[in-house]
């Protein structure tokens, strides 16, 4: 069973981010497959967590270079997701309770498309507006005033 299908709805037309997002989906599916087969899913979860940490760090670096306030809600959501993932891992390793890991599979599959379609799409839009090149890390016109929000119209 596929945990999350990669669809055109997840494509943001920013090649590096699209590749990173596709890798996230593949790792989430590999984790889900391990759960479905009844295998030890911890190695697959570790791979997903490591990727997610690097994925979010990349986005947050881009936000900083574009002029986002470090405490913006997009980065706050990243922190929340990583905290939950790390806590589920702690439950699995220290308390021998794997149930949070199983729940997290479904939660991540529901959360990710919304996050990508709203917050990441807003980041890509901002990157385009300020002329940010993710390859060089150069920003033609950083935001004049640091953005406290995520870039979406629903965030203040």
From TrEMBL:
Coiled coil: none annotated. Belongs to the hemerythrin family. PROSITE patterns: HEMERYTHRINS. It comes from Pelomonas caseinilytica. The keyword DNA-binding does not apply. Transmembrane segments: none annotated. This is Hemerythrin domain-containing protein. Residues 17-122 form the Hemerythrin-like domain. The keyword Kinase does not apply. Keywords: Iron, Metal-binding.
